[in-house]
Design a protein that fits this description.
The chain is an alpha/beta fold and 132 residues long. It has six helices and five strands; from the N terminus they run βαβαβααβαβα. Helices cover 40% and strands 23% of the residues. A five-stranded parallel β-sheet has the order 2-1-3-4-5, sandwiched between helices.
């Protein structure tokens, strides 16, 4: 499955169990060489902002974003990162346990979001995330 491998992926989620599960799926299936994990949007946004100031930024190719987190939630992260979306050049997947159609529709209004996925995530869904 080397054609699905990405160099760097990122999980932005405060659910330690979910992160542990996704980390295991990514490693076991060799979806990514490196994995960044942030427990809230503010930590992730600060990382991206810092990397974008560098001559050669080290940015993830795939971002898995939860909506409900403390400090800066997924909605706030989407708003904060939108001006930099072109520079990020990443597939951004919103991964949430919500089934509220209004929230799904709101996510789809962000042009730089690749797709909305409902938790729990399985291996087949992960293939979609990491396929180039």
């Amino acid at each position: 499955m080397t054609d699905t491998l990405v160099k760097k992926a990122c999980i932005i989620d405060d659910d330690k169990l979910y992160v542990s599960l996704i980390r295991m799926l990514i490693r076991k299936n060799k979806f990514a060489v490196e994995l960044l994990v942030f427990e809230n949007g503010k930590l992730a946004f600060n990382y991206f902002k810092e990397e974008l100031t560098k001559e050669i930024p080290s940015l993830p190719e795939v971002i898995l974003l939860d909506l409900n987190m403390p400090i800066m939630d997924g909605w706030e992260f989407l708003e904060a990162v939108e001006p930099f979306a072109d520079m990020l050049n990443a597939k951004l997947f919103v991964v949430s346990s919500t089934i509220n159609p209004l929230e799904v529709s709101k996510v789809n209004n962000h042009k730089f979001v690749t797709a909305f996925m409902t938790k729990p995530i399985n291996k087949e869904a992960m293939v979609r995330f990491f396929t180039k």
